[in-house]
Amino acid sequence: MKRTIYTGIAAGIAAITSISCNSADELPPLNEGYATEYILPDPVDLTAEDRAVIEALEKEYNEAISSSN
Predict the structure, then answer these.
(1) pTM (2 decimals)?
(2) How far apart are CA 58 and CA 22, in angstroms?
(3) pLDDT for residue 31
(4) Rounded CA gap, 10 and 41, in Å?
């Protein structure tokens, strides 16, 4: 009885292993009608206020890193 069960389990594992070895496509197929190019918006220069906010965040970040060491 045990031999039949072990043989069945081994056959099941072998079947699952042989079926699952197919390689999947890395990319899904392209469908017609979908855009494949992206339009990026024009870049916007930072204002002085925006630059000040970013510099304050960078300063806070650098202080937090240096105090943790």
Answers:
(1) 0.40
(2) 49
(3) 73
(4) 58
- Residues, the chain: 69
**pLDDT at residue 58 greater than cutoff 90:** yes
Distances (CA, A) of 60 to 3, 10, 15, 25, 50: 69, 61, 58, 45, 16
pLDDT one-digit tens code per residue, 14-43? 888 777 656 666 777 777 777 667 888 999
CA distance 16 to 14: 6
C-alpha radius of gyration, the chain, whole number:
29
Distance CA 61, CA 12 (A): 56
